[in-house]
Design brief:
The chain is of the alpha/beta class and 234 residues long. The chain has seven helices and six strands; from the N terminus they run E-H-H-E-H-E-H-E-H-E-E-H-H. It is globular, with a radius of gyration of 17 Å.
């Protein structure tokens, strides 16, 4: 695997601090059920080698580092901005205090600072950084939120100013050759770009999101793990 790859895994953790759990409007069992439903459970375990990965250690229900903090974030309308207030059903889940928001914002900023530093380090050393933004999703969730149907096994998200046709085609052909359905920017679009480089051109950063439908690895985890790691050898 190339040394200039950086995996970003933001949604695999189920960890919510106990003190924050106690502030939920849900029962603890309902909160845990929602946590399992929304998080990319076990995606981090799909990687054989995590030495080139930045894995966020908190649940997205506590802090979602792939959301914008300002009003430009489209998921705010669902109560799922960088701080979640509602469940996937639209029920009130959290209403954090000023202090809780301050702590969560600090965690968000620390994570993005780490990403900035990691990407800069790779750019300095290899003159190019390939970010692979690794996620999973469920057909049920995108149907519930967005009314999408006929969703693929693999969704590949791309960003115009951080795009490589060669790398994108590699993943499309690799997965399709093995019988998986693949779509670009559907049902999710885009890919993470660190704050330091977001909106800038000619950065030598390639960012590509790989969203794996949970049905793929829930069916045969070990088999798909092997396939995914083979895909990264390009």
């Amino acid at each position: 695997m190339r040394k200039n790859i950086l995996f970003h895994i933001p949604h695999s953790s189920l960890y919510i601090p106990d003190s924050y759990k106690q502030s939920t409007f849900l029962t603890i069992s309902k909160l845990e059920e929602e946590n399992m439903f929304l998080c990319d459970y076990k995606v981090d375990e799909l990687l054989n080698d995590k030495s080139q990965a930045v894995i966020f250690p908190y649940s997205r229900l506590y802090c979602d580092v792939e959301r914008f903090k300002d009003d430009s974030e489209p998921m705010n309308q669902y109560g799922m901005g960088y701080i979640y207030t509602k469940t996937s059903n639209g029920d009130l889940m959290f209403q954090p205090s000023f202090h809780q928001k301050k702590v969560i914002t600090s965690i968000y900023d620390q994570h993005h600072g780490l990403l900035d530093d990691k990407v800069t380090e790779i750019l300095d050393k290899y003159q190019q950084c390939i970010i692979i933004d690794l996620h999973s999703y469920s057909s049920e969730l995108v149907s519930k939120l967005f009314h999408y149907q006929d969703v693929p096994d693999i969704c590949i998200g791309i960003e115009e100013d951080y795009y490589s046709e060669e790398i994108t085609n590699h993943f499309i052909q690799f997965f399709e050759h093995r019988g998986y359905s693949v779509k670009i920017n559907y049902p999710y679009s885009g890919s993470l770009v660190p704050n330091k480089y977001y909106g800038k051109k000619n950065t030598n950063i390639v960012s590509i999101m790989i969203e794996i439908n949970k049905r793929v690895y829930e069916k045969n985890f070990d088999e798909f793990k092997k396939i995914l790691n083979q895909a990264m050898d390009f």
